[in-house]
Design goal:
Elements (H helix, E strand, L loop, with lengths): L6 E3 L5 E6 L13 E5 L5 H24 L4 H12 L4 H21 L11 E4 L5 E4 L4 H11 L5 H25 L15 H12 L10 H10 L1 H7 L9 H13 L17 H5 L3 H4 L8 H21 L5 H13 L11 H8 L16 H13 L3 H5 L6 E5 L6 E7 L14 E4 L2 H6 L1 H10 L17 H14 L10 H12 L4 H8 L6 H6 L7 H9 L14
Antiparallel strand pairs: 1-2, 2-3, 4-5, 6-7, 7-8
Helix pairs in contact: 1-2, 9-13, 12-13, 15-20
């Protein structure tokens, strides 16, 4: 067997093409495991060229046979017979020729002991066998050499060229005779990353498809893909490598916070090249790099895009996907976040801390008073609270009785958006929020004919960044020095409390808007809504040991 798995040669030195038949198709080839056909040459260089052509043809035929369920056996027989035309006569003649050559070589290499040489037989120009037998072996050899002089280098080159031309002509004739349905399927030129991105974004915006982006997501995610587009946009997607992904991962960690937001004035006129090359225009800007959680989110978005290309466009991207998946698995951003401690909660909600406004001194804006409190007792996300309408504060009946309870209904009605489809839920309002005057605040807004719970919440691209920055400012000035805390820490407090008090999973999911770990529960309980009576018991059991002042109208 030669070094090439799809080639071998016989004992006479003639090369053969060798093809393994897939196990599924073997019954249609009389249970043969492989096919061999002569390449009609003892030149390895020519054999490799010819075997490659046969290999392409054979693999194309196998692919098509595997995709055709009807009459496979007949098509297999016909196509293989046509492709590998019978060359038995040629092979036989060539074998005889090589036999003569080997006998001559044996004569030359045996110290001229011609007595050991058999009678010389060869094929003449008319394809007739001729035997030389004068009774003298030396005379036989001299006669053969006179009739078949050894070719010089020019003659050898001419013969090789002629053999190659004949071989190509044979292949062309075979391809022309083969049925059209079994002609090799031309592979389309790979599209670029930008072209695939445009198709992916259009697909995700198409209504009615599984995984379609919401209105808010459709505004955000294309921006998050722009960095990837700017680096690899002109490159064919199929040509992406592990090195490309490692480069993108490195860039993802260097991007400044909010850089992908086109409305962020701080980076107006700043390009990605300026960031990566520390350009003078960028060096003077005070900025923070993005957190590990944000980087992880971007890597997941790119991975989802490449998965879509691999699935819907049949582009082989396993290595780039593996590179992204490994990095995502290594990111432990959750360890960089934590809940507020009991002492920190007292600083924020009870003590007269060092900030110019607090729960003792009072807040000028209602949103500053209510936003942290609602988050602490509902576990709701910042965006979920900021986009609430007054109609989302409602009475909800229990399933087991006619009792009603005030709830916050988190939904996607009107212009609201949610992080995931599991985020829709109803959360009973904690007694501490009612005692602090939340329902009175709602009535106050209704009198003013307001629509939203927080009319002044500044919303940009579905992100309430000004409220997030306000809390970060309040948190720092109140004396909380732990940089692992943020507004999202209230959600950690809420979920940690439920976990520590062994609340059943279905109730935790109903209150937090997380996805069930069980596939069955995820499939058959999608609306996230449970009996409010059970949820009220859980919510009212939450006690952080805090005393809250009542809201005041200023």
């Amino acid at each position: 067997m030669s070094g090439k798995a799809y080639m071998c040669k016989n004992r006479h030195g003639t090369y053969y093409a060798r093809f393994i038949i897939p196990k599924l198709l073997q019954p249609h080839f009389n249970n043969k495991k492989e096919i061999r056909r002569t390449l009609q040459t003892d030149s390895r260089k020519l054999a490799v060229k010819r075997a490659r052509i046969y290999r392409v043809e054979f693999e194309s035929i196998v692919d098509q046979l595997m995709s055709k369920a009807d009459n496979i056996k007949e098509k297999a027989r016909r196509i293989v017979d046509d492709l590998f035309a019978d060359k038995a006569k040629i092979a036989e003649q060539q074998t005889e020729h090589f036999a003569v050559q080997m006998r001559i070589e044996a004569t030359k290499s045996s110290n001229d002991d011609l007595s050991k040489t058999q009678l010389i037989t060869f094929i003449d120009l008319n394809s007739n066998p001729v035997t030389i037998d004068t009774g003298d072996h030396e005379q036989d050899a001299r006669l053969y050499q006179m009739l078949n002089p050894a070719p010089n280098h020019e003659e050898l080159a001419r013969r090789e060229k002629r053999e190659e031309e004949l071989h190509k002509a044979q292949l062309a004739a075979i391809a022309a005779q083969a049925p059209a349905s079994f002609q090799p399927v031309p592979q389309p030129t790979s599209k670029t990353v930008s072209e695939h991105l445009d198709e992916y974004i259009a697909h995700k915006k198409t209504p009615g498809k599984k995984g379609t982006w919401s209105e808010g997501t459709a505004r955000q995610k294309p921006n998050k893909l722009n960095v990837f587009r700017s680096i690899f946009g002109d490159k064919p997607t199929a040509a992406l490598t592990r090195e490309d992904m490692e480069r993108y991962i490195d860039v993802a960690y260097k991007i400044p916070s909010h850089f992908e937001n086109p409305n962020y004035k701080k980076y107006e006129g700043v390009t990605l090249d300026m960031v990566l090359n520390d350009a003078p225009e960028f060096e003077s800007i005070d900025y923070d790099v993005r957190g590990a959680g944000t980087v992880e989110g971007d890597l997941k978005i790119v991975k989802a895009f490449l998965n879509w290309v691999a699935k819907y466009k049949d582009v082989a991207l396993q290595i780039p996907l593996n590179a992204l998946g490994n990095e995502i698995a290594d990111i432990d951003h959750e360890s960089a976040k934590c809940s507020f401690s009991d002492e920190q909660l007292k600083i924020l909600f009870e003590n007269d801390n060092s900030h110019s406004e607090n729960y003792v001194k009072g807040f000028k804006k209602p949103i500053s008073f209510w936003l942290p409190l609602i988050a602490l007792y509902t576990g709701a996300r910042l965006s979920e609270i900021c986009q609430l309408h007054l109609t989302d504060i409602k009475l909800v009946k229990t399933l087991s009785s006619n009792a009603e309870h005030w709830c916050i209904d988190i939904n996607e009605d009107d212009d609201k958006s949610l992080k995931t489809k599991y985020s829709a839920r109803q959360i009973p309002i904690h007694k501490n929020l009612i005692n602090a005057g939340l329902l009175k605040y709602v009535e106050h807004l209704k009198v003013k004919e307001e629509k939203r719970l927080f009319p002044g919440a500044n919303r940009t691209q579905d992100q309430f960044s000004s409220q997030s920055r306000w809390f970060a400012y309040y948190n720092d000035n109140a004396g909380i020095t732990d940089k692992k805390t943020s507004f999202h820490s209230f959600r950690h407090n809420f979920c940690t409390y439920l976990a520590n008090h062994h609340i059943p999973e279905d109730l935790v999911v109903a209150l937090s808007g997380h996805q069930f770990k069980s596939l069955a529960k995820t499939t058959y309980a999608r609306n996230g809504k449970r009996d409010v009576g059970k949820l009220v018991e859980v919510i009212d059991s939450i006690d952080y040991g805090l005393n809250h002042p009542a809201w005041k109208i200023y």
